[in-house]
Amino acid sequence: xxxxxxxxxxxxxxxxxxxxxxxxxxxxxxxxxxxxxxVDDAIAFALGYKEGVRVRxxxxxxxxxxxxxxxxxxxxxxLVGMAIQEVVKDGKQGDEEWVFVGSKDADLxxxxxxxxxxxxxxxxxxxxxxxxxxxxxxNLKYKTEFWRYNTQMNDSVMLCCKExxxxxxxxxxxxxxxxxxxxxxINETMLHDGAPHKSNEGYAYAKxxxxxxxxxxxxxxxxxxxxxxxxNIYGKYDNFSIQDGxxxxxxxxxxxxxxKNGTDFTVWGTVRYLPFSLSLHISNHNHIF
Length: 289
Ligand SMILES: NC(=O)c1ccc[n+]([C@@H]2O[C@H](COP(=O)([O-])OP(=O)(O)OC[C@H]3O[C@@H](n4cnc5c(N)ncnc54)[C@H](OP(=O)(O)O)[C@@H]3O)[C@@H](O)[C@H]2O)c1
Hints:
Number of strands: 8
CATH superfamily of the largest domain: NAD(P)-binding Rossmann-like Domain
Shape: globular
Number of helices: 8
Radius of gyration: 23 Å
Strand order of the largest sheet: 2-3-1-4-5-6
Helix content: 40-55%
Bound molecules: NADP nicotinamide-adenine-dinucleotide phosphate
């Protein structure tokens, strides 16, 4: 074994040890706060603490008795979520309470964080917008992450909706997940009639599985899960990145730069498909939800 490899192994072992010591010191710190001061008691305390969290979550799974309708919007900080926030002023709409959450409230790829969020908000209805999204280049570059992150988020949200007795879940699909070779006009019955375009297959298959699981959860548990399929959306709060964003905001940004710098406005690709005719401004979209 080369010395550099030994060093790497040593470093990894050291790192592992450091991680263990971090956990122990965190447990000790927690225990100290609650008045126990040896390691065994500290571990017992930590287990009890975890148990406490689990018990609280079990409590939260019981149906609400306050008669409130609480609509939780995941992805509430994104383009579509912010547009819905503008429609639902002050977090109230009739007798409904609306709660908009972003990734800072919980990383929905993580089931524990998702359960904790559901236990805190106790939603009766969920609009699930959170997703790992992007334009063509991002889709081509991160196919694996598009599949994994979206599948993880969708799985956590759907499972929690079932566990916490959510009355209705509406998730968001996209027209770009339809088969590459299809006939127009398209409708929801044609979603699985062929492979999606290769460029966004990670994203497309993860999104398509929402449609499959909507039916599975209904057949097995009677859950009312459904989804909407918007076309490309653009507008306020969009991601205007030329590399990572969608086509319309990307074109707007390029146009602005060309005007500002007095340079050519170069458009990639061909005009076989006109993106403007396939895109919807957010103001026409947000009321639909
Ligand atoms: N934009 C379109 O053209 C279009 C078209 C059809 C369908 N859709 C669908 O519409 C939905 C919303 O899209 P959008 O354009 O509004 O997207 P966006 O602006 O990129 O917003 C994505 C949202 O997801 C949240 N998010 C991302 N990763 C997360 C994680 N690990 N845990 C928790 N939250 C996470 C983000 O939270 P933070 O910002 O707090 O990190 C943000 O609120 C998506 O499901 C998308 O597939 C969009």
